[in-house]
Amino acid sequence: MSFVYLFIVLVIVQRIAEVGVAKSNERWMKQRGAFEAGESHYPVMVALHSCFFVALLLEVTLKDSSWTMWSLLPLAVFLVAQVIRVWALLTLGRFWNTKIIVLPGAEPVKSGPYRWIRHPNYVVVIIEILFLPLIFQAYVTAIVFSLLNAAMLLVRIKAEEEALDRNGKYSEKFEQVSRFVSIRKK
After folding, report:
1. Of 178, 140, 143, whose CA–CA distance to 58 is shortest?
2. Which residues pair with 178 in a beta bridge?
3. Hey, which of 31, 56, 89, 122 has its CA 20 to 30 A from 100?
4. DSSP string, 150-168
5. Residue 108 CB contacts under 8 Å (≥ 6 apart), including other chains
6. Which CATH class is domain 3-173?
7. What Pfam families does the entry give (predicted)?
8. Domain ranges of the chain
């Protein structure tokens, strides 16, 4: 198995492990009275992410992609995103999930990367969907799935913030925190 496939398979294995953590966190939260929101778009999001990996594998196979020196830049960006991903997941702890699961009465997390960005994990997903394909010159996958992901995030973030607002004054508590970029509002 070439480096290209090995690297992509390792990322897929990481995602599958994260789904296991998410399911455990979902059970834990629901046992404490949590509710789920955004159920209708969740299967579409799962399909989008699954199709992303299929498209990526297909494009790197058809193009006979390989590792090049140009791959270093998108690889570096991708690896930095992984550090931010782990930081965000560890900061949320049991509250992290791939679904929108809200525990009534729980305060929104405002530590770790959430001090500066409301949705650091979505920033990571944006970076991954753009830069993972770029490591192997899979430009079509990078462009098509970045656009599809942007459309999905418009739906996802709206549903998530509405659910968090039902649980408390999320928007008010985070009004000084940007959704994606660390620029404090005055």
Report:
1. 140
2. 117
3. 56
4. HHHHHHHHHHHHHHHHHHS
5. 114, 164, 168, 170, 173, 174
6. mainly alpha
7. ICMT (PF04140)
8. 3-173
